[in-house]
C-alpha cells in the first residue's frame, strides 16, 4: 500500500494540496501546528487563515488573477469554491468573509476520510525515501523547520518584510464625511471613500513623514517587496507617490460631483459591514502613531481599530536554484515545496501551487509522466517564474500576464487579454486530455452551513 503523502502546513497551499490529493484517491497526513504553536500573524486555529487583506484579487475573467481562478476551478479548487461561498461585495475583486472562509476550508478538510489532520508542529523533515512530502509552511515557517530547510538547501534563504493593513469598525466611522462608491462604478457602493482636497492631503502626507515607525535593519532593506510597501514608505518617495498609489482618486467623484485630490478607500471585511480595512495602508508606524495619524483623516476621527498594521518576516527560498517545474527539490525529488515559501506572492498564487503539485503527484503515482502545465496557462507560468527566473535577482511575484508566454504575432492592445484567456483555456484542456486528468472525484466539497455571525477569527483586538 502507498504511504500517505505528508503535507506540512494547513494554510492556503497545504489545504488545497491535501484536498486535491485526497479527493483524487491519495491518503494524506496533514500537519498544522496552530493553535498549539502560533505564528506572529495568524490569530485563530482554522486552516487557510487569511492573515491580512480579505481579498483574493480580481475576479474579472480577463484579468490574470481571474484567469488563474478559473484554471483552478477547472480542477475543482477547494480554496476558490470556499471563497465564492463566503464572498463579500468588493467591486471586481473576490473578497471573502475571512472567518466563514477559513471555517469552510477546515470543515471540507475534516470531512475528507482520506485526510488525517494532525495539530502538531513538524520540526524535522521526514525521510522521503519511503513517502512523498509537501512542505507548505508559508512565509512564517516555524524556526525548527526553517533550520532544517537551510541545512537541506544551503544558505540561499531570503527574508523580506510584509506589512498588514489596519482594520477599523464600521460603526466608528462618520458616514456624513465618507461616501460609498467603487472606482469607475465597478461594484456599486462596495467601498467607503474618504476624499481629501489638496490642503488636507498635504497635511496628511506631512504627518506620515513625521510618524514614528519601527525601523528595518539595514540588511533587510534591499529585500523589501515593492508590491507591498508601507504607506509611510511610499510617502517618503515623494509627495505625490501615495496619490498615484493606494490614494489615487481616479474613477471616483464625490456626491457633490467633485473629483477629490486624493482618496483613502475602505473595503468591507464582512457582509454585516461591521469592519473595514484601509486599502493599501500597510504600515510600519507604531500602533499609537497609527491611531493618531489615521484619526486625522476626515470621517475617521473616532475610528476604533480592530487591528493595526504590522510588519512580519516573510521567508522564501531561492526557487530557481532548488525547484523544478514539478515543485520538487532537486536534491530530494520526493520532497516538494509549495506556497509562499517558493516565492510566489499571495493567497491565490500560493493555493495554485498547492493544486498543481497535487496534480503532478497523482499523475506520477499512476506512472504517467506528467508534462509541466503549459507556459501559456497561468498555472504553468507561475511555475516557470519559480524555476526560470534569474536566481541573482529572484523576487516574489503575483500572477500577471508578463509571466505567461508572450502572444505570437501582432494582437491589438484591447484584444490581448481575451487572446491570453482563449489560448490558456485551449492549452489547459489539451494538457488535461493528454494527462487524462479530470475534475476531482469528490467534487463539490462538502461545506458546513456558512457561519456569518461567527466573530472574525482573524481579527485581533488591540483596543
Ligand atoms: C504579515 C503578512 C501579511 C500578508 N498579507 C497578504 C495579503 O494581504 N494578501 C495576500 O494575498 N497575501 C498576503 N500575505 C502572504 C500570505 O501569507 C500568503 O499569500 C499565503 O497565506 C501563503 O500561503 P501558504 O499556504 O504558503 O502559507 P500560510 O497560509 O501561512 O500557511 C502556512 C501554514 O503552515 C503552518 N506551519 C508553519 N510551520 C509549521 C510546521 N513546522 N509544522 C506544522 N505547521 C506549520 C502555519 O501555522 C500556517 O498555517 C501576507 C503574509 C504575511 C506574513
Give a description of the structure.
With 463 residues, the chain is an alpha+beta fold. The chain has two domains: 272 residues, FAD/NAD(P)-binding domain, CATH 3.50.50; 151 residues, Elongation Factor Tu (Ef-tu), domain 3. It has twelve helices and 17 strands. A hairpin with a 6-residue loop joins strand 12 and strand 13. The protein is globular and about 70 Å long. The chain starts with a strand and ends in a 28-residue tail after the last helix. The relative contact order is 0.18. The site of flavin-adenine dinucleotide has 37 residues, from helix 1, strand 8, strand 15 and helix 10.
Question: Can you describe this structure in just a few lines?
Answer:
This protein has twelve helices and 17 strands. The chain has helices at residues 12-23, 64-74, 78-85, 98-110, 143-153, 198-210, 231-236, 287-294, 319-322, 347-365, 378-388, 416-435, and strands spanning 5-8, 28-31, 55-58, 87-88, 93-96, 115-118, 133-135, 158-164, 167-169, 179-180, 191-196, 262-268, 275-278, 305-307, 310-316, 328-329, 332-337.
Amino acid at each position: 500500500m502507498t504511504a500517505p503523502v505528508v503535507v506540512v502546513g494547513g494554510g492556503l497551499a497545504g489545504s488545497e494540496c491535501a484536498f486535491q490529493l485526497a479527493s483524487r484517491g491519495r491518503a494524506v497526513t496533514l500537519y498544522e501546528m496552530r493553535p498549539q504553536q502560533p505564528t506572529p500573524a495568524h490569530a485563530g486555529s482554522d486552516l487557510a487563515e487569511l492573515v491580512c487583506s480579505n481579498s483574493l484579487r480580481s475576479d474579472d475573467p480577463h484579468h490574470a488573477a481571474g484567469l488563474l481562478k478559473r484554471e483552478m476551478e477547472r480542477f475543482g479548487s477547494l480554496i476558490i469554491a470556499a471563497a465564492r461561498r463566503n464572498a463579500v461585495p468588493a467591486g471586481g475583486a473576490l473578497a471573502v468573509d475571512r472567518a466563514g472562509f477559513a471555517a469552510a476550508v477546515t470543515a471540507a478538510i475534516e470531512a475528507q476520510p482520506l485526510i488525517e489532520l494532525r495539530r502538531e508542529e513538524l520540526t524535522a523533515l521526514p525521510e522521503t525515501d519511503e513517502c512523498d512530502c509537501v512542505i507548505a509552511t508559508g512565509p512564517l515557517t516555524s524556526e525548527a523547520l526553517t533550520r532544517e530547510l537551510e541545512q537541506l538547501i544551503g544558505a540561499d534563504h531570503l527574508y523580506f518584510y510584509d506589512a498588514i493593513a489596519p482594520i477599523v469598525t464600521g460603526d466608528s466611522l462618520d458616514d456624513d464625511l465618507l461616501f460609498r462608491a467603487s472606482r469607475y462604478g465597478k461594484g456599486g457602493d462596495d467601498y467607503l471613500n474618504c476624499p481629501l482636497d489638496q490642503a488636507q492631503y498635504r497635511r496628511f502626507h506631512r504627518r506620515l513623514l513625521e510618524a514614528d515607525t519601527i525601523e528595518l535593519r539595514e540588511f533587510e532593506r534591499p529585500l523589501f517587496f515593492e508590491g507591498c510597501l508601507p504607506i509611510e514608505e511610499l510617502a517618503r518617495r515623494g509627495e505625490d507617490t501615495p496619490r498615484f498609489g493606494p490614494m489615487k482618486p481616479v474613477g471616483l467623484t464625490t456626491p457633490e460631483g467633485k473629483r477629490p485630490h486624493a482618496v483613502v478607500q475602505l473595503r468591507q471585511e464582512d457582509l454585516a459591514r461591521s469592519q473595514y480595512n484601509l486599502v493599501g495602508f500597510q504600515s510600519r508606524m507604531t500602533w499609537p502613531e497609527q491611531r493618531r495619524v489615521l484619526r486625522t483623516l476626515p470621517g475617521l476621527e473616532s475610528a476604533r481599530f480592530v487591528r493595526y498594521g504590522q510588519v512580519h518576516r516573510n521567508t522564501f527560498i531561492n526557487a530557481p536554484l532548488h525547484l523544478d517545474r514539478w515543485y520538487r527539490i532537486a536534491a530530494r525529488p520526493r520532497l516538494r515545496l509549495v506556497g509562499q515559501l517558493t516565492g510566489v506572492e499571495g493567497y491565490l498564487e500560493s493555493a495554485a501551487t498547492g493544486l498543481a503539485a497535487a496534480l503532478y503527484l497523482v499523475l506520477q503515482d499512476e506512472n504517467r509522466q506528467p508534462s509541466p502545465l503549459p507556459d501559456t496557462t497561468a498555472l504553468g507560468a507561475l511555475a516557470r517564474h519559480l524555476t526560470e527566473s534569474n536566481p541573482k535577482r529572484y523576487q516574489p511575484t503575483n500572477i500577471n500576464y508578463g509571466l505567461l508566454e508572450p502572444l505570437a504575432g501582432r494582437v491589438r492592445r484591447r484584444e490581448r487579454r481575451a487572446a491570453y484567456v482563449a489560448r490558456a483555456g485551449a492549452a489547459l484542456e489539451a494538457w488535461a486530455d493528454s494527462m487524462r486528468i479530470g475534475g476531482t472525484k469528490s467534487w463539490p466539497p462538502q461545506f458546513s452551513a456558512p457561519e456569518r455571525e461567527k466573530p472574525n477569527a482573524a481579527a485581533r483586538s488591540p483596543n
